[in-house]
Amino acid sequence: MSTEGRSAEPASATSALESAGFVRLIARADGDGLAASGLLATALADRETPFQVTVGRTVTERSERARSPTNEGDITVVVGTADTAAETDEIRLAGIDRPSTLEAVDLVRELGATPDPVLALAGVVAGGSDPGAGETEWLLETALDRGLLEQRPGVAVPTGDPADGLAHSTRVRAPWSGDLAATRDALSGAVDDESDALDADDHRAIASLVALDAVGAAEATDAAAASIGRLLRPYATPSHAVATLGGLADVLEALARTQPGTGTALAMGHDVRDAALDAWRERGRRAHAALEGASTGRYDGLFVVGIDDGPVEAVAAIAAAYRSPEPAVLTVGNGAAAIATREPEPLGATVEGIARDLEGAEPDAETDADADVTDVEYDIGRRRGYLRYDGDVDDSAIIEAARDLL
């Protein structure tokens, strides 16, 4: 289950891509991975180098694609962790210690291309970091200087209609989340104008109302105050199909797991706005509905959310940001589970350990005596993990494994 492989050094990676006859881009299924692959795909397109982008939902999926035969002169770039032999000739942008997007930015610049700073920053935000922090400062300054970003009052949502954006956003949790009519009713107390006529004062009023509702919700935890702060004073994207930087990050996260082809097209600047927003709305609606009807349990260091149906990773992320009294959240669904954390430490060892425990679990002597060994696949990202398994796994086994490892 090791994810060790050989990652090319910058110089050798650049040389390999410059001479490649064809490039396979295999991306991790999250907003960071999608942004990273989009940056590289655009650079390759500008060089007229043929390429193909696919998204692998788990480490196993990416590994199998990376190990599939290629023609002489072809290069494989894996965005995310993978389990490949040490001799595999590939470029690896693992994105564990720093976002894959920043690794892609370095590689694109080495190729002599100019990375899109808005897409790069959106990938960083999707990966859980703040735009302009640390080594992203120059990206933010570049985007501001070029007029690609404009900071303003309000909230970071993908649409010009704040009610639509807030109702379906997975970056906020308030009593009206997931319900467009309820969100419109809530905002009616802040502004009377139509969404296309909002001025700075209107945006401030909306931001204040949203912050109060999110922090003052009955189930909100102390973490909600810090989480809602990341939604306020957004960077608007006047030349982009998506209205704000934070909104773009939210859309990329949704598309990576539901419509990766549309997500890749959006990341490369193609006109897929309507399809992208439709997929984003549906994922947000399902996530909030699942959280509304979820069961919960609290353990030392772990908050467990049980859902019947819904996107487990989105539910885990929302709960970690707004509902969990513990730093880590485990969301357990039907055949899938997700972990999200507010802590900076990587979750890779934890997720791999849970997968090993589940694969090694013995079947129940009375009901599952003839059951096959549990088939478990997993994925690792920055501050998150994902597990997909067959239906014979009991939720208590996952919870016990997570408690032992966290």
List the main descriptive attributes of the protein structure presented here.
Diaminopimelate Epimerase, Chain A, domain 1; exonuclease activity; four-stranded parallel β-sheet; 406 residues; six-stranded mixed β-sheet; 3 domains; exonuclease; inorganic pyrophosphatase (n-terminal core); 45% helix; disordered N terminus; alpha/beta
Describe the structure.
The protein is α/β, with parallel strands linked by helices. It folds into three domains: 13-134, inorganic pyrophosphatase (n-terminal core) (Alpha-Beta Complex), CATH 3.90.1640.30; 151-287, no CATH class; 294-405, Roll (Diaminopimelate Epimerase, Chain A, domain 1), CATH 3.10.310. The chain is built from 16 helices and twelve strands. The radius of gyration is 21 Å and the shape is globular. 51% of the residues are buried.
